[in-house]
Design a protein that fits this description.
alpha+beta; four-stranded antiparallel β-sheet; two-stranded antiparallel sheet; 4 helices; 6 strands
Length: 163
């Protein structure tokens, strides 16, 4: 079968990525439907739901560019998705590594969908403490971050096993 390689199936990992995409897009549709750009609703003393449009990448990198960055980030996201699927096909039997890649894939595709549909990424999670605000983010960004942490953990565990 084309989806089975290296001791595991690609399908569960693509399913996880699809679930991330669905949750990410669903939450963004809710935010866009309920909030106007710039609205903020306090949930706790350290957490708000906001509506922010990010024209750039992480931490609004290149947000002030003339519009070309949209296509750059779409292209990078598409290339990353192809590379990640190739890596998943090659390493589908490695659970933690594949979890990490599936989360990153789902997050990357979720944000690419936003850029294709809107020209920006919808961010809505805002964390703050004593007047210091962390940049707003979304479910896709969270999945990418957790996936990156899993990649680091996987590498640490791999190095320890090889000793």
């Amino acid at each position: 079968m084309a989806f089975k390689k290296s001791g595991g199936s690609l399908l569960p990992w693509l399913g996880i990525a699809a679930l991330v995409i669905l949750v990410d897009q669903f939450t963004k549709v809710l935010v866009v439907g309920m909030l106007q750009l710039g609205d903020s609703h306090r949930i706790t003393s350290f957490f708000n739901i906001v509506r922010v449009h990010n024209l750039g990448a992480a931490f609004s990198f290149l947000a002030g560019a003339a519009g070309w960055q949209r296509w750059l980030f779409i292209g990078l996201g598409a290339l990353a998705a192809v590379f990640i699927v190739w890596m998943l096909r090659s390493h589908a039997g490695q659970r933690l590594f594949s979890w990490a890649l599936a989360l990153i894939l789902g997050g990357a595709v979720g944000n690419v969908i936003d850029r294709l549909l809107h020209g920006y990424v919808v961010d809505f999670i805002q964390v703050h403490y004593r007047g210091a605000y962390f940049p707003s983010f979304n479910v896709a960004d969270s999945a990418i971050t957790v996936g990156a942490a899993c990649l680091i953990l996987d590498e640490i565990l791999r190095v320890r096993r090889s000793r």
